[in-house]
UniProtKB/TrEMBL annotation:
Species this protein is from: Bacillus cereus
Membrane-spanning ranges: 38-57, 69-95, 122-145
The keyword Transmembrane belongs to this UniProt entry's keyword annotation: yes
Keywords recorded for this protein, A-Z: Membrane, Transmembrane, Transmembrane helix
Stated name of the protein: ABC transporter permease
Electron transport is among the record's keywords: no
Signal sequence, renumbered to the chain: none
Alphabetical list of InterPro entries matching this protein: ABC-4_Integral_Memb_Prot
Amino acid sequence: MFLLVMLFNVYVVSKYKIIDMLTAGRKNEDVKFRNPLIYVITFIMCVASLGYAYVTVLKIGLNFTNPMFMVSIILGILGTFLFFFSLSGFILYVVKKNKKVYFKGLNIFIIKQINSKVNTNFISMSVICLMLFLTMVVLSTGISLKRSIDATMKEATPFDASIMLENRDESYTIEDV
């Protein structure tokens, strides 16, 4: 996997000129502010899909055979991507409406730079968020599984050591041992 990523990065970097790579850190990204209505609608869709996904999982539980379980997982992933896509535009739209905050100090520059970084990296941020969620789920599942196994072992073996005696011909008793 790492070899594949390395080859892809070599291919991407080889397409750039050296002077462009040296001056890339000093260039500002153009803020492409789309229609604010798109961001608001996307934000509402993200809240609706995340809400429906979590309500569905809470209602049906972890029933993997139920087809709604897979639908809720897909809606949760889609809602996460929509959240990070709409986040920057939605915040920029709300802050631009509040002129006191927008024109105070360096807020114009800072807010637009944050907006451009979130717009550029929303896929990476979504994947990181989903991976952290998966890590928390796996960790809590592992801890629960360990506790369950410990409780089962305590019930099944109440003593530190157990001796099992097979007396097939019944010629001796426990006192003989």
